[in-house]
Each structure stands twice: as C-alpha cells, then as structure tokens.
Amino acid sequence: SVGEPKDIMLDVLDDCVDYLPKEKPRYLMGVGTVDYLFEGVERGVDMFDCVLPTRTGRMGTAFSHEGRMNLRNAKYKEDFTPLDPQCTCPVCTQYTRAYLRHLVMQKEMLGGILLSIHNLHFLIDLMAKAREAVLAGEYEAFYQDWMNSPAANDY
C-alpha cells in the first residue's frame, strides 16, 4: 500500500490474501495509521512497516490514546503531564508534554527522536495487544473497544 486510496488497497488485499500461505507471515508495506493496521490484521496480515510514526514524530506529532497530539500547539506549553499517561515507553515515563513541546519549538533534534521513539512504541504496543486478542479469539471485541475510544476518530 503506497499511495492508493484506502478502499482500493482493501479491495486488492481482500483479493490477494486468500492466495497467500496461511502458515507463513504476511507483510503489508506502507501501512502506518491505526485504522489501516486494524484493517490489515482483520485480513490476516502479520507485519507492517511505514515511515509515518517517525516522520510525524520529526514534525512534532505524537500518537496517543487521546488521539494525535500536535506538540506545536500552545496548549502544551505549560502541560507538565506525561505525553500519554497510558503509555509505558521511556519518553512517557521521563518527559512532560511541555518539555517535548519546548524541544519541538526550538527545533532540537532530540524532540523528533523522542517523539519517534514514542510513536513506534505506541504502535508496537497496540499491535502486540491486537495479536493477543487474535490468539485469544477476541479480536472483534478488541477492535470495537478501540473504535469506541476517544482516539479512534483521530487516526
């Protein structure tokens, strides 16, 4: 998936997935948004890669359980809470939104690096939970829980 509209990507994926061996890993390139990841998992895709988590991190955007956060926004200037209180990554456990915003606004390389680390952790953790749900036969409930979360409309 590299550039075509979502509906076309899903149609092609639906057509191809039955021809791929079920006992081997299935890889979908260029997919990095949560909705696309969920759609891929639902169709049996095992692996994804995309520049989105690092590119958006370098631009000052963080993924979170609250939705996407643009750290350039002034509302984070004096926000001394963790980036995502539900996240256990080193960024969320050690740095505040205000500090990360400061780094982004000053164009400090460290800001983009830290947000990239967080974004990758966020997606890896989300997909680990999706894998657990698939293995437990509870993927649909997991998916519906996410779709009913505050962040769902922001991805």
Fold blueprint:
Layout: H1 6-17, E1 27-29, H2 34-42, E2 47-49, H3 52-58, E3 61-62, E4 69-70, H4 90-94, H5 97-105, H6 109-135, H7 139-147
Parallel strand pairs: 1-2
Antiparallel strand pairs: 3-4
Helix pairs in contact: 2-6, 3-6, 5-6, 6-7
What keyword list fits this structure?
50% helix, two-stranded parallel ribbon, 6% strand, mainly alpha, 7 helices, two-stranded antiparallel sheet, single chain, 155 residues
In words, what does this structure look like?
The chain is mainly α. Helix content is 50%, strand content 6%. The chain has seven helices and four strands, in the order αβαβαββαααα. The strands form two sheets. Strands 1-2 form a two-stranded parallel ribbon. Strands 3-4 form a two-stranded antiparallel ribbon. Helix 3 (52-58) runs antiparallel to helix 6 (109-135) and helix 5 crosses helix 6 (109-135). It is elongated, with a radius of gyration of 17 Å. The protein starts with 5 loop residues before the first helix and ends in an 8-residue tail after the last helix. The mean pLDDT is 93.
